[in-house]
Amino acid sequence: MKRFSILCVLVSLITFSTQTTKVAHAQQTGESPHENLNFPELNDFQRPEVETYTTDNGITFYLVEDTELPLINVNARIRTGGVLVPNEKAGLASITGTVMRSGGTETYPADSLNALLENRAASIETGISFTNGTASMNVLKEDFENLIPVFVDVLTNPAFPDEKIELAKTQTKSSISRRNDNIQQIGTREFQRLIYGPDTRYGRNTEYETVNNISREDLVNFHDEHFTAENMMVGVVGDFDSEEMKEKLEETFGQLPAGDETTLEFPEVDYEPQSSINFINKPDVNQSFVMLGHIGGLRDNPDYAKVQVMNQVLSGGFSGRLLQIVRSEMGLAYSVYGRYGMNSFYPGVFYAGVQTKSSTTAEAIDAIIEQIERLQNEPITEKELQDTKDQILNSAVFEYDSYEEVLSQQMSYAYRGLPSNAFEQYIEDVKETTIEDVQSVAQEYLDPGNLQILVVGNKDEIGDQLEKYGKVNEIDISIPEPGSGEQEVVKGDAEKGQQLLNQMADAVISPDTELNTLTVSGQVQQQGQTMQTTMTVDYPDAIEQTIQAPMGKVQLSYKGGSGTMTAGGQERSLPPQMANSLKSTLNKSFVSIALNAGEVNPQFLGTEEVGGTTYNKLNVTVDDSNVAILLNQETNYPDIIRYKQFNPQMGSEVTVENRHSDWNTVDGVAYPYTQVTIINGNESGKATYESHEVNK
In what residue span(s) does the Peptidase M16 N-terminal domain sit (predicted)? Predict the structure, then answer.
């Protein structure tokens, strides 16, 4: 082995030296150096034959032998999808696909399944997208016979344990809570809703409420209805003998019930051509993300190849006109791109997108529209056509760069109802596309007079640039909270309630003290960690907080509805829901309530005993929410404050209880140096303060 390695090195050095000599000679003679380099011919990729057959119960199998490595890959495609889920349960398909794998089966519970696969360096994955379901297994050849029954069990007999369902729902809700963090994700999502309609299955959002509507029974029924033999196609590629593989597949899959074939019903897209200008304000950014376009087409359109050539001329990466002109020549874009989408099951979307400085938003929009119109008004050049064809044809080799890709492509075509030679036909149609064809499809399929424009950016920085396109429609992207209806009206003794609240206010802030700013310093304990903290509240709505966390200093700043968080020298904006939650928590603090004692509608509700102590109980209304205050009968301090608050990560309301003790008074303001926070009955954090300062 060592002699072989040395020999390889010597051969490489000799080859390099020879090529270097040729380059030097070419430079001396004025020849182009690359013309003298000799490269070995690439090995031809032999496209394998895919053997197909269908079992009596309706499963179609696709087999490709590949003996290069002792591996076997199994991929199943199931006729199902999120399109079959009603709007009120949006998210059901995705959660079903997740828990099929994460929850294991009755025979192989989740932990046992994970250990089994890990010990054999194998993997099994499942998922359900908008248009199909998938399941895959990658396994060593020697383990295939033992693990293929496990794969079938996961595919057909998921256990759907409650705890895994709740975990998947919580993860989905956490994703919902972060969906407005990224400007590009916002723009892409809302543009699709603009084109298809927000209440359609193509434009709907998964919301907290729709996730809460999903039950275990829903998952079981959705799986049982669609994961049947009649809806399955299974591809197998790897190191096996076809005849032996057929016997094994018949043994494991042949006994599955045929079931009923699912009809994938894709609602008709009701799209009316129109021009519009739409805006989403994101005040924490200094650039604009723009998408503009209209409805696209279908994959079975005879002009598919011509449209893709046109699309490549317009937005084909570095050689496309959008990038060459809008970014390189005009310097208007950080990124610019586009696509004429042509889907198999429902119309795609034509769009162009650009990210630009706030000050050049309109200029970038105009530049893109100009290039769309130019495609209609001017023939492209012969060089553009040839370069575009070369790009498409040269990249085509990567469509079949592995046996797995060949198998996947053929299964995809069969699933979408396309002929098995669809790709080859596309390549031939690209070759035959002419300059006249490109201009013709641009005139037929592009509609620059009816573009829907969406801008996500900073309203203050963009100014009135968008008004030139018409009346600006501002889109609200706030995330609906589940069950956010009217708060229950609490009735009690209003007169005594006001009397007791005034006594609380005087106990917390002495009548001769005008409180503007409060600074507290101490320690917070959370998740087993103790961290130093200093917080300054500038009433009514500004907070500055510094936390010495294990990973370094974290600074939080909030004022007037928005804020930032700085950690590791990196500053980022607070997500809107986090900022709103922070503001809500501030408003419900005992200091804010004391400062607004005349505006919170206090109601005396009698007494309540907690831990052997009897308290006077008040209810006040803050931000349209009920807040219970338990007043110490001797000191009038608010020892306990209790309220419900929406938790974005959990996607539901939680009961928050703050317990205050160890009160200290400085400059007329009393503050509890020990504070314990309890959420849904469980202690979630504790703060121990050492000092507080007033108006400093």
Answer: 78-186
Burial of 49 per CB tally in 10 Å (0-12, 13-18, 19+): exposed
Indicate whether 420 belongs to any domain.
yes
Same domain, 148 and 244: yes
299 lies in the same domain as 380: yes
DSSP letter, residue 525: E
CA distance linking residue 420 with residue 332, whole number of Å = 43
Q: What is the pLDDT of residues 51-98, one digit of tens each?
A: 999 999 999 999 999 999 999 999 999 999 999 999 999 999 999 999
Does 177 score more than 80 pLDDT?
yes
SS3 state of residue 551: coil
Cβ(548)–Cβ(533) below 8 Å: yes
**CA separation for the pair 630, 479 (Å, rounded):** 32
Cβ-based burial of 682 (10 A; exposed 0-12, middle 13-18, buried ≥19): exposed
**For 240-285, where are the E strands, in sequence order?**
276-281
Q: Both ends of the chain: CA-CA distance in Å?
A: 76
Global confidence as pTM: 0.81
**CATH assignment at residue 220:** 3.30.830.10
Burial class (CB in 10 A: 0-12, 13-18, 19+), 161: middle
- pLDDT (tens digit, 9 = 90+) per residue, 556-605? 999 887 888 898 888 887 877 678 778 888 999 999 999 999 999 999 99
**Do 655 and 532 reside in the same domain of the chain?**
yes
* Chosen domain end from 218, 253, 288: 253
- Check: CB of residue 414 under 8 Å from CB of residue 233: yes
Rounded to 5 degrees, φ, ψ at 123 are -140, 145
Which domain covers residue 24, as residue numbers?
2-36
Task: Decide: 668 and 508 in contact? Cβ < 8 Å.
Answer: no
Q: Which residue has the tokens 């090195």?
A: 9
Instruction: Please count the other Cβ atoms lying within 10 Å of the Cβ belonging to residue 665.
Output: 12
Report the candidate in 204, 224, 237, 236 with the shortest Cα–Cα distance to residue 83: 204
Residue 463 included in any domain: yes
pLDDT in tens, 515-559: 999 999 999 988 788 999 999 999 998 999 999 988 889 999 998
